[in-house]
Amino acid sequence: MKTRHVLAIDPHGHLGSPLPQVTADDQALHCVESVAAARKVLSKNHCSVGLVVFDSCPPTFQEDIEQLIAATPMTEWIGIVSPQAFESKQFQAFILNAFHDYHTLPIEPQRLAMSIGHACGKARLRLSLTDPGNTSGRFGICGTSPIMTSFFRQLEKVLAADLPVLICGESGTGKELVARAIHDHSARSDKPFVVVNCGAIPSTLIQTELFGHEQGAFTGAVKTKIGSIEAANGGVLFLDEIGDLPMDLQGNLLRVLQEHKITRLGATQSIPIDFRLVAATHVDLQEAIRAKSFREDLYYRLNVIQLQLPPLRERGGDICLLAETVLKNFTSATRKCRALGFSSDAIRAMTAYHWPGNVRELINRVHRGVIMSDGKLLSASDLGFETFALEPQTVTLEKARASFERDIVETSLRANGNNVTKTARQLGVSRVTLYRAISKLNIEL
Length: 445
Known about the structure:
By secondary structure, this protein is α/β, with parallel strands linked by helices. The protein has helices spanning about 35-45, 60-70, 90-100, 110-130, 145-160, 175-185, 205-210, 230, 245-260, 285-290, 295-300, 320-335, 345-350, 360-370, 395-415, 420-425, 430-440; strands at about 5-10, 25-30, 45-55, 75-80, 100-105, 135-140, 140, 165-170, 195, 235-240, 260, 270, 275-280, 305-310, 340, 375-380.
């Protein structure tokens, strides 16, 4: 039987001799006198249950306990409280919000033993729902939907190829996260990762931001500045919203990509440079080329490898997975958070919503919900869905049929290890018909 660890923080020894009576045979008890000692125990063991004795409640001790509880989301905490400590309304709210259960001193061993057993069961259930063996994505990116599984296969092929990458996708889909994954999982991971948002820098400053300048190059240039391209030497330069780069600087960037050299503003000597360029855009660059706002020759330099990041509305079950991940990360870093999950109406609202702001909007709504919620489950209104009707997505029959066909084919291929013959047999079609479907639906084997 697996041992379950129980931690008791008892600064003044109030639990004493009754402690052995409150733990079962499969429970290992660790009794300490301070929060610092408790942290040492928790660094070596996962404790299913934590007991904290409050005979008096100095503010510093309560703050330390709050921080400890926030850092241990998989532990169920039980307060052991003196009647005097309960005289404070603030302390009552603290116990209500932060603890699984509480007992007043002096303890009743039998009742506390039952409470510990119940808390151990709840901790085991919580741990099973966050089993690290159940992957929630790859490369630090959350997602298990078929379209994201296909995206991860494409990304895996890109990592080792030291070539320019163009990431396309709507605003808020996580393009910078993909660029960072390319850096972190490549041979350049120990070198700089430099980010430049081309749309956020005034046109009068972007040249010196990218290329740097020498001291005295212009009025106000009181010292030499190294530009972002030079700072990325050896590593990865990520140019976000590349479509907003002014036309004259597009020519300068093209020259850098061709010659692998850079010249600071006001300098006469060029500097050899070696970096991998990853660019991102939410606009159609080919349309920008037709509108004469983007250079065609630069486009072909950037578009050696293209990755298309799907919008959130096309990612199916990833919506709830992402929401749970965002909630867990935010509550573990935010004190006095009661929220533990989502209500059924919140899940229905999130699933039905079109998500025009994509993952960025989802993050903002979950953060808003945590702050605004009074309960342990976030409701649809907590997420800001009460002010407007959730409009159903308008999907044509042709799109619905194609989406259904893609899901069926991809699921069958994955189940058969991408073996086309087995998949065709399972789907009741010929290999030629299946190959045509794979090509039409742009499914990667």
